[in-house]
Design brief:
Radius of gyration: 16 Å
Strand content: 5-15%
CATH architecture: 3-Layer(aba) Sandwich
Helix content: 40-55%
Distance between the termini: 30 Å
Number of domains: 1
Structural class: alpha+beta
CATH class: Alpha Beta
CATH topology: Glutaredoxin
Number of strands: 6
Largest sheet: 4 strands, mixed
CATH superfamily: Glutaredoxin
Length: 173
Amino acid sequence: MVRYRFILFISVVVFSGMSLALASDSKYAESDSSETGHQSVIPTISDLFVEAVAAKKSRLPLLIMFGADDCGYCEKLEAEILKPMYISGEYQEKVIMRRVMIDNFDAMRDFKGTTLEAFEFASKYKVTVTPTVMLLDSDGKMLAPKLIGINTVDFYGAYLDEAIDLSYKKLNK
């Protein structure tokens, strides 16, 4: 277990460094969506209190992607996995997808109705690397292990589907 955690830690450090390198690459840079062609369709959270009410009513988990504007891997995750999932409509009955951009200073409300900034919300969940994807219930409790970073799109999609299915099953026993 200790060896696994060490390997995971090293992977996170490597992903973080690679993300910074890719952010300077024009293919992954997201300084202006019109330049890169990337435009987010995943709604950015401003009020988790309201989202939690909807999640509880529909018995769906909340998928939250923690990202940053200068994160090339965040853009890759969103463009190649989350956006197609969101647009397809196949996941509407399984999960509510939202994102939190931890590098902006916009105010948001958390699950309890407390106003805070996005990076403060991320730190409550110990999110230090972007992208990080979490599946939460309507009270803000994790339903599946965090998905930290992204390596290959093919494997990531399978891991994400597994986490969504696990989360959905926990809420709909």
